[in-house]
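User: Can you fold this complex?
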Amino acid sequence: MARQGLKAPTGRIRLGMVGGGEGAFIGGVHRMAARLDDRYEFVAGALSSTPEKAKRSGEALGLKPERSYDDFAAMAKREARLSNGIEAVSIVTPNHVHAAAAMAFLKAGIHVICDKPLTTTLKDALRLKKLADESGLVFMVTHNYSGYPMVRQARAMVAAGEIGEVRVVQVEYAQDWLTEKLEDSGQKQADWRVDPARSGAGGCVGDIGTHAHHLAGFVTGLGVAELCAELTTFVPGRRLDDNVQILLRYENGARGMLWASQVAPGNENALKLRVYGSKGGLEWRQEHPNQLVFTPLGKPVQTLSRGMGYVDGAASRVTRIPSGHPEGYLEAFATLYSEAAEAIEAARSGGKPDKAVMFPGVDDGVAGVAFIEAAVKSSAKGAAWVKLGGG
Amino acid sequence: MARQGLKAPTGRIRLGMVGGGEGAFIGGVHRMAARLDDRYEFVAGALSSTPEKAKRSGEALGLKPERSYDDFAAMAKREARLSNGIEAVSIVTPNHVHAAAAMAFLKAGIHVICDKPLTTTLKDALRLKKLADESGLVFMVTHNYSGYPMVRQARAMVAAGEIGEVRVVQVEYAQDWLTEKLEDSGQKQADWRVDPARSGAGGCVGDIGTHAHHLAGFVTGLGVAELCAELTTFVPGRRLDDNVQILLRYENGARGMLWASQVAPGNENALKLRVYGSKGGLEWRQEHPNQLVFTPLGKPVQTLSRGMGYVDGAASRVTRIPSGHPEGYLEAFATLYSEAAEAIEAARSGGKPDKAVMFPGVDDGVAGVAFIEAAVKSSAKGAAWVKLGGG
Amino acid sequence: MARQGLKAPTGRIRLGMVGGGEGAFIGGVHRMAARLDDRYEFVAGALSSTPEKAKRSGEALGLKPERSYDDFAAMAKREARLSNGIEAVSIVTPNHVHAAAAMAFLKAGIHVICDKPLTTTLKDALRLKKLADESGLVFMVTHNYSGYPMVRQARAMVAAGEIGEVRVVQVEYAQDWLTEKLEDSGQKQADWRVDPARSGAGGCVGDIGTHAHHLAGFVTGLGVAELCAELTTFVPGRRLDDNVQILLRYENGARGMLWASQVAPGNENALKLRVYGSKGGLEWRQEHPNQLVFTPLGKPVQTLSRGMGYVDGAASRVTRIPSGHPEGYLEAFATLYSEAAEAIEAARSGGKPDKAVMFPGVDDGVAGVAFIEAAVKSSAKGAAWVKLGGG
Amino acid sequence: MARQGLKAPTGRIRLGMVGGGEGAFIGGVHRMAARLDDRYEFVAGALSSTPEKAKRSGEALGLKPERSYDDFAAMAKREARLSNGIEAVSIVTPNHVHAAAAMAFLKAGIHVICDKPLTTTLKDALRLKKLADESGLVFMVTHNYSGYPMVRQARAMVAAGEIGEVRVVQVEYAQDWLTEKLEDSGQKQADWRVDPARSGAGGCVGDIGTHAHHLAGFVTGLGVAELCAELTTFVPGRRLDDNVQILLRYENGARGMLWASQVAPGNENALKLRVYGSKGGLEWRQEHPNQLVFTPLGKPVQTLSRGMGYVDGAASRVTRIPSGHPEGYLEAFATLYSEAAEAIEAARSGGKPDKAVMFPGVDDGVAGVAFIEAAVKSSAKGAAWVKLGGG
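Assistant: Here's the predicted assembly.
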């Protein structure tokens, strides 16, 4: 349990944030995640593009006035010149801002931690990837579910051949918070997510479908070759899809189904992955993330538990507390921050992080956007088969 | 709990069986189901088309030698002439025999209980339906999962509007027994199920996909208008599909996904239905059939339990024992037999059974075959959208 | 799956019943259980001690008038003389009748299947045991939970040393149906169970505590040496205990806790056993009886499922249908009836049943009554430690 | 979700720590908990009583050398004199050090956060209570499970009468890590916990039995009047109890059972509480802490989920992220730290925290020690009934 212990937090990484001011949800999550393992120090922000709100938010979070900006471009420029300027930035705005903000900080030589989906168009995503690749800077996209230890356990088991050749992938991410027309109430989270101008062409498919898509790819190591997507809008007057049903053809011949919904009453954040191979299966649920179910063919069902002695090193190195004491969403998120910290610290001295370090990078971000574009295109054609573009 | 009590079993229904001899599985289930509520007396059979086997099986089951046949046509003819001849027959053969056998008994004026899928072609199904409709005889197709009390509870709740307008249907039936090439071992169940000549054009889709399709329709009251089906054969050398992934468009605009698989390790008979509407959701799992999960939007998740005072009359009338004492697969199967008994007993006196009596009929059988044909056709076109034929 | 198949039911056992008329619950269960595997024929009864009710019940169940009695003593005498008289009798009356009825039939040379608790006093139980032992007749006490396949699996695993030396037993049986004063409503089941004259000195402890006690003993093979029992009556005005909490000291030094309650809202028939040894643990729940959880120390939790290839022969020989198709309470009850049938059939020819045949006998019945007496005595002393009498 | 947001962390509380150096477990937990909500700054420590180890641990954690002590008494004295000295101290040593350390810091005017059990004797606990009460300082005992939102939800529901009058309490805390003689391996956690000199007279009963005892009291609001405890040592050669079975009599007449075990294979940190009243029941499990099961008599079982709109304010004010995104052990621990922070911040200005603030205090610590002493005494008398001392 490498994270719990006495690892020196020598020289916390100076971190800034774009977005995440008053009324935001995910900004607070990023800050708690950055704090948990004590590898970051939050020192600057452009927390809102509304000056007054940016100011209030900065004060509330204890930023020094001169490090609280209302313009990410200005922030990138000025921080790059400060001797104690930020080394990394978290971009936690609505989707349409990601591309420009990420490019500004990359150009300023600052490592980037960016929320998903990476951008609102594949074209932007590919431009951003080019810049990120050339910069040599650390670039993390917060497909945060890959920070859960038992997700890493699943990935290690698939890679080790414990379920044989992967044949079937069943992945889903169901929520219910948009079952009614919440956006009409002015609720901030709902408001921008259903607005194509800020969210991009995908609604539910971009917001949570991408998480399901990434999780399946992360665990199986397989890419999607083609898909057939039925995107539906059930709530009258809503401008983007709120229910997503997709058939997937993986590169190795495996077949998959992906369901994402924000109109499924009783589902909170019901992300669930099942993978079946020629020798066994695996099942993982985000709402009870400390367990992984392994079903070797013809043998008793096994429930593996985070923190136990038998778990793979890839899972145990990102675990903080003993088995039976649940770790949750914030811990998984914090793990990604600590993985990025490993890479950033290595970069300080011109090196590379340990091979075991693992986090979603710009390529994962591009793949997510390619997935959204293909799904939207397929659905527009009446749910026809479409090949995935991108990388 | 109407079934447990003192209801007079006056005049058990004389029952025959076609198929279900040595090595068969489902025949024994039908016999136990017929026996549980004491409404039937098993008196004749053409238990195998192999004379020696038919004879041995008849003896083993206590049939009188003269009531043990090796030819269903001869059986239908002779039983029709006997003063104590069978009143009903159960047809539990491989699929390709269903149509001819059912027609023979209908023509002989004998009520029919037929396993699913009804026939191997839609054309046959429609011919059979015509005959059944004209005959006025009772015709039950054993989509047995509709015999579970909590499935009936779900149907009643949807009908009562408790989940609002149905939007999303997620149904699946996963097994693992064909993960390896069991048919090569000579195992009888596997053998005929993967043989197009005996099973029909659908493998997994016909064997268990039809159960999933029927269950969703039974609970929601909705028909499928179009589907897009990806049928896959994962086990090398197998001649029929062993994994089925389908997008569904329901007549009311609801959207569905159906997954059926016989190559998903760790799944025994994992039939599971989830239905989401504008006001709530329902979830039911065959492997734990005494519970029904109801998720009214924004309220605590409710788990309803068979036998409790709050369950709908439609569920409590087909329940035998108190809540917490699990009823299982045989009880649900027995319920269908008892429902058919109600209809057969009513027919004895030229009447109709009580309105509460409910069992899948020939129309359900036709719908199942139409579903198979559409799925096979869609898949043959590379998983294109196909409208459902039939009724 | 020996029970499903073609086993010849040649010569069904002629069965009678004492009790189980109108308004009774358990009589119907016994009849369905006797019917499921087709080893019995129900031909005579003293279904009630009220003549009119006995008559009506007999008619409703299709008994011939001359085989429908209102007095078990007369029934025993007459049936013993008939050439086609009953070979076995099921005694399903309130507890206070068990002893006299069982003795009457034993004396008449008729095999006995008796509900639990065996008698209302240990003295009676020991007298009955003496008579049963001397008679050489089959005597089964329906501690029915021992008929569940996965309970037998648990027993086999403990016996095989898979959990090492047993150290800790946690067993409980919780219900909620007596949370309010149901007996005041005239409900028949509640009425006699809370009446010391008919139920005996124990209320909840006798009604369901004995099931928990037997289950733990059946699985572990261990006897209770001493106990310390707190019997409580929570519902004002009730005459017998409705909540039972007991510390147990087993003969081998293991320690146990037993909780039985009929006033625990949300519990239907929540019988649950957990056993922990030096190498592993086992957990079984009656409400989901097809699974058994096995926890080998330091390894993933295993969930074993009835019907799978890896289950012990002791479990698979009493299984009817494939895994994933749940068997329930009636099937387990039916298994006891079929086990008794094996013994009765063997007795017909002067032999013994196969060694694998297993059912609770008169010794188990005596142990149950000794348990009740010790618990009542302990509680009367303010929950002091008391040694178990009996055997 | 008050904790997630923009609450100003103005002036973090300066925190010190006694214990928690190399090889310790709970020290790291306290530090993460203190960090999560950004209310504390960790600035001083006596992390070990071994000078070299204290030094190394302090360096590893980034303490300034002059704030890293090897003697808590010296630390208390010096920190009290510093202008930027610590305002609060966390005492996370083995049990035998708690009393002296807590007294030293109280005398130095420093707020105390102390691990449980409070002390190794009731006499010490009462002396400490006296000092704490007189000091007016904040004193928190980390019965950390009371920090879980759904535990607070349960408490609020009991207080609101939703389950009626409490009748039955079933509480348990099972682990398996001491099933074998781990202490012989030199494992630090095991080593001191089974040593009476460092752990006190109770082993398992003190280590985890106290958590179960506190949880039940916290939720029900009831105190234990008498108990009858069977403490057992199953592992040969172990010096303290490793399995605990207790009957409880609550002050209001409710009856309880408490099971704690460290030798129950398959149990990780299986703390579970069930409470039944005259109108309903509640069930909560630490291993899946975001759900609370509520069983109103005669109605469907309800599963309440942390973060949903219907939860009580007492639960939602200590929640950080939306429902369905699990919070775990560290979050609950962090909640206690933030609750203490509220009290410490209020004390800075001579005030009291908001009434909603809630954390276990010195009285809870005394009650825990009284519970241990009574259990040890009862067991020594052969499991006789003993009244609880203390307050």
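The two ends of chain A are 36 Å apart (CA to CA). Chain A has twelve helices and 14 strands.
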